[in-house]
TrEMBL record:
Span list, region Disordered: 1-40
Superkingdom assignment: Bacteria
GO cellular component: cytoplasm
Biased composition (Acidic residues): 9-31
Cited HAMAP family: GrpE (MF_01151)
Protein name: Protein GrpE
Coiled-coil intervals: 41-72
Organism from which the protein derives: Jannaschia rubra
Length: 189
């Protein structure tokens, strides 16, 4: 095992705290090539300030890395399944189309499709997936809707939704898929 290095200042009787006179040391003439006592103290103080600055910067950087890691972990937990969620959206669309095509028929198959769609929406809800279902007459919102077409429709104002082609979905607060809508282009009278 290596022996710890001894501090030469601890053994030097001139450097003992009770015997050391700082003012006298600063007034002494420096030996040839050595710094004066005051210059040495200023150099030590400058080095101390530099080290303190480096330490504070390292601490700040460490805190930033910690915060970034927490944010990345939270984001991964919330949005990590977005690819799977996007892949499940056509399943919802197909179930919805099947129900729309069946109309008011009331047989066992239709009831099964309704229950399957309801369970799919429950699973979506448990995982933070919310349905974006605009109504006819709502204002077009480019953040939530995708305009599939524009058409002039009497009795509407420009920018109103006139048809909903497909519902959209949010994953927590991120848009998975915008609602696909038709928008009125009726000019203002």
């Amino acid at each position: 095992m290596a022996q710890p290095k001894e501090d030469p200042f601890l053994d030097d009787p001139e450097m003992q705290e009770e015997d050391f006179d700082l003012d006298a040391a600063m007034e002494e003439e420096p030996e040839s090539g050595a710094l004066s006592g005051r210059a040495a103290m200023e150099a030590v103080a400058a080095e101390r300030d530099e080290l303190r600055d480096r330490l504070m910067r390292a601490l700040a950087e460490t805190e930033n890395v910690r915060k970034r890691a927490v944010r990345d972990r939270t984001e991964a937990e919330q949005y990590g399944a977005s690819r799977l969620a996007r892949d499940l959206l056509p399943v919802y669309d197909n179930l919805r189309r099947a129900l729309d095509a069946a109309g008011d028929a009331n047989d066992g198959v239709i009831e099964g499709v309704k229950l399957t769609l309801k369970e799919l929406l429950n699973v979506f809800g448990r995982h933070g997936i919310k349905l974006v279902s605009p109504e006819i007459g709502d204002r077009f919102d480019p953040q939530m809707h995708e305009a599939m077409f524009e058409a002039p429709l009497p009795g509407t104002r420009a920018g109103e939704i006139i048809q909903v082609a497909a519902e959209g979905f949010l994953l927590h607060d991120r848009l998975l898929r915008p609602a696909q809508v038709g928008v009125s282009s009726t000019p203002a009278s």
